Amino acid sequence: MSVRVQREDFDVGAELAALTAGKTAIGGVTSFLGLVRDMAGGEAVSAMTLEHYPGMTERQLEAIEAEARRRWPLDEVLIVHRYGRLEPGDRIVLVATASAHREAAFESCHFLIDWLKTRAPFWKLEATPEGERWVDAKGSDDDAAARWET
Amino acid sequence: MKVLYFAWLRTKIGVAQEQVEPPADVTDVGGLVEWLKTRGPTYAEALANTAVVKVAVNQEHVPFDHPVSAGDEVALFPPVTGG
Known about the structure:
The complex is a heterodimer.
Chain A: E1 3-6, H1 12-20, E2 28-35, E3 39-40, E4 43-44, E5 47-52, H2 56-71, E6 76-82, E7 84-86, E8 91-99, H3 102-119, E9 122-128, E10 131-134, H4 139-146
Parallel strand pairs in A: 1-6
Antiparallel strand pairs in A: 2-8, 3-4, 5-7, 5-9, 6-8, 9-10
Chain B: E1 2-5, H1 7-13, E2 17-19, H2 29-37, H3 41-46, E3 54-57, E4 60-62, E5 73-77
Parallel strand pairs in B: 1-5
Antiparallel strand pairs in B: 1-2, 3-4, 3-5
């Protein structure tokens, strides 16, 4: 299974090793690892809670993966996204793509994280010294996703 | 019809999900949202600015003119912020 939504942390090295194990047609892997930052909008963030829509989340991530496979010749795709309470430095998301050649791996990985940010139903609640606040969506994320529109 | 709320829509309305039976003249998402606003002040406040309300019907993103019917699962939520 190449899409996982989980509360637990993941081991990047083990995930990438498992992705390519025994698949010697793969020439390259690109990965993106998203982490919780300790600052947002000039304010300190002490923790972040990720809420999601069970069922729809998996469905949307699978649709995004299918779109990437339609656009690029990919041997493997992995999307792991966490939910629940996370602290600065914690891993949030891992996207990895494997292909015979680097172009497809680089481009599809970039595409996947851009589309995931605007389509996968996750919402971040930040804890700051001023209290908790729901993170607003960024216009720059829409712009990043829009460049992949065909 | 099952309606789910997420993030600040959930906290403002005060429920995560509920079963509703809108009147027969509610045929699309926009109509459903207008009807939900009449259910109480928390609904009216949470749904006041529909520019920041996104919708999924049966777990697919849809626009406000998308049809809704009795057996649907409708989710209302702010723009997503994952990744």
